[in-house]
Amino acid sequence: MPHAQTATPQKRSSKPGIVESSALLDERGQLIIEHRGKRYQLRETRNGKLILTS
């Protein structure tokens, strides 16, 4: 029987992580983010820019 692993808190790096937007956005260019109980929509515009709305 495998041992259960306990998650350990990660230290915050002084540098922000980088994620390609294409890895997050769906085929419509959208992503719903839940943060502290509130939902936000991240979407790509026709001009290729990103907009975050609540």
TrEMBL record:
Residues 1-21 are annotated as: Disordered. It comes from the Bacteria. InterPro entries: Hemin_uptake_protein_HemP (IPR019600). Residues 1-11 have a biased composition (Polar residues). This is Hemin uptake protein HemP. It comes from Billgrantia desiderata.
